[in-house]
Amino acid sequence: MDIEKHRYSYLTKFKIMMRLKCHCGMVEAEINLENFNKILRCNCSICKRKGAIMSMVKNEDFVITKGKEKLKLYQFHSKVAKHYFCSNCGIYTHHNPRSNPLMTGFNIGCIDEVDSFKFDKISINDGLNHPLDKK
Ligand SMILES: [Zn+2]
Which terminus of the chain, N or C, has less C-beta within 10 A? Predict the structure, then answer.
């Protein structure tokens, strides 16, 4: 079985539009998962600490519907990537990666309908050896 297809059907059998919520509920977003593809973790210095299981959509498929003013932006190193978290509960909600700022990565753990423990194979993004850091 094609594992990517399996992951896709696992998520999409619920619905295409899903709601992401931080822990305290002050921040919410709607995600259009129509073009959803991969599920990943990342070994870069920040993702290693967060430990979140993530996925990616285009920026236009990710809309903050509540609590935009509660979001805090964190940046480091090249200050290209934008890492957002709820300023009240501290939960990582989403980010715009350095490698492609037109995409939004989001925390699958923030979607109630998805059991992130059900994914058997999760890709590892090698953010530790970021292509933009290579000389
Ligand atoms: Zn919160």
Answer: C
102 lies in some domain: yes
Question: Whole domain around residue 109: which residue ranges?
Answer: 3-130
- The rounded Å distance from CA 15 to ligand 1 centre is 24
Nearest to 92 by CA among 115, 76, 72, 117: 72
Q: Find out whether 114 and 18 touch, Cβ atoms under 8 Å.
A: yes
pTM reported for the whole predicted model: 0.85
Can you give the CATH number for the domain in which 69 is found? Answer: 2.170.150.70
- Count of structural domains, the chain: 1
pLDDT in tens, 41-90: 999 999 999 999 999 999 999 999 999 999 999 999 999 999 999 999 99
**CA–CA separation, 4 and 52 (whole Å):** 19
Residue 113 lies in a domain: yes
